[in-house]
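Case study 2.
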Amino acid sequence: MNTFKLGVVGVGLACLLLVGCSQSTGGSNRPKTIPVKVTVKYKGQPVEGAIVTFKPKSSNGKGASGITDASGVAKLTTFTAGDGCIPGSYEVTIVKYEKSQQSASGGVSEKDYEQAMSQVEESRETPAPKNLLPKKYASPKTSGLTAEVSESQHDFTFELTD
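Prediction:
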């Protein structure tokens, strides 16, 4: 009897794993994405380590984000690394936080990105990391930056000013 129960539990766990794995890979239920490249410059120079976020103007949309490399270029991600954006209208924010650690290559490590994003989302009680870019670009309400992503428009350059 115990062997039978153990077998049923094992089959149940295997089914849960299969369902979980199929959902995490997205399957065909995901909306189509278009690879999007964003270049960020501040005072005429490329900005390395900036977090670029595309916030959908539609309330039922899904946003995308990425981190710029040494040449100021980010490839945006919605579902999986570098997959781009769902076509549509976006408000854009760009921040660059003071980093305590960077990867050996000089770029921003995944750990730094995750830490910065979690700090952005934490309550106001925790002091936010220092933003090294003008404050207006940190909010979709004040950045003035927008993007319309489509098959023909998927490469954006943002020249930030004070």
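DSSP finds two helices and eight strands in the chain.
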